[in-house]
């Protein structure tokens, strides 16, 4: 068994000034749950439709109730639209999400959407019969370098399993769930998460971020402002194009509706930029933000509802912006720190970030 790799803060690097939550994860937002299923099977030559398999699914549940019946406000910001996500148009139109938020490999998208629909039917037998249909929310990145995508190995059963096993508390990072076959800044990528807590004087709200990281080139990588990637380049390695993607999910318990949440989503793009990404052509950069402070009923009994909403000027909204930027940056770097080297189809290998070397480089830029 390999030794557990440290998270960024465990390695002595603190990004930003705001404090993280208890687990430094999206699950620090009260009642937010995460479930993941990892699929690893086979080695060697690619046999289309059979393997090797390096893929999976990750789901985020904004709350533990019935999401179809109790929707949450949400918004999507597309930094770069080279993606195959599902559900975005209805989120833009109605400002809510009504299913678990799923992340997976590109060619699994349709199957995962099918699983989310089946989950909604299981919980709501009237769905699509005497009630409206459900809008499944599925986000994707390509795991083609390590995985047999032709097999579309994530099945409906894996979707239901991930939802059923979703829990609060610590979140696994790196080569797990949807992150199993991903690459990030030329190294092994995957899943990462972080959180920030707003001062009690401003409400004590939490902002949590979870990413599926699969973008960037080695030369672009920056950690805490240091151009780490420039010092890690291997002259024997062929130049790689930035053709990957990243999914960023921002969750909060601050009372916000979709328009204000779109402002948070756009700030997450600034956290991504801090890590060196340029949102290159061919990179699908999708950011979804939600608040679970309010649950919007599927069939309201009244024509109007009254809700609290943050004041969109002053210290609170600025703190939410800062929290989003810092948590996004740290979630991405946590991905790199957690992900271990992996070999997949045809012997293709993505190596884990050399953490000791990275710390040496950062120390050289920041002598005591």
Explain this structure.
- The chain has helices at residues 88-94, 109-123, 156-164, 228-232, 258-274, 315-338, 355-365, and strands at residues 33-41, 53-61, 70-81, 96-97, 101-105, 137-141, 183-184, 187-188, 190-197, 206-214, 245-252, 284-291, 296-297, 342-343, 349-350.
- The chain is α+β, with helices and mostly antiparallel strands and 368 residues long.
- The chain has one domain: L-amino peptidase D-ALA esterase/amidase.
- The strands form 4 sheets. Strands 3, 4, 9, 10, 11, 12 and 13 form a 7-stranded mixed β-sheet that branches. A 4-stranded mixed β-sheet has the order 1-2-5-6, covered by helices on one side. Strands 7-8 form a two-stranded antiparallel ribbon.
- The longest helix is centred in the last third of the chain and has 24 residues, at 315-338.
- It is globular, with a radius of gyration of 20 Å.
Keywords for this entry:
368 residues; alpha+beta; L-amino peptidase D-ALA esterase/amidase; 15 strands; 23% strand
Shape: globular
Q: Which structural category do the helix and sheet elements fall into?
A: alpha+beta
Q: What number of structural domains do the residues give? A: 1
Q: How large a portion of the residues is in β-strands, by DSSP E?
A: 15-25%
Listing every helix as H and every strand as E from the N terminus to the C terminus, the arrangement reads: EEEHEEHEHEEEEHEHEEHEEH
The percentage helix is 10-25%
| CATH architecture grouping | 4-Layer Sandwich
Q: From the alpha-carbon coordinates, what is the Rg to the nearest angstrom?
A: 20 Å
CATH superfamily: L-amino peptidase D-ALA esterase/amidase
Overall mean confidence score, pLDDT: 94
**Text of the CATH class:** Alpha Beta
**Are there runs of 5+ residues with pLDDT below 50, and where?**
none
What's the end-to-end separation, in Å? 35 Å
The beta-strand count equals: 15
CATH topology: L-amino peptidase D-ALA esterase/amidase
Question: What kind of sheet is the major sheet?
Answer: 7 strands, mixed
Count, helices: 7
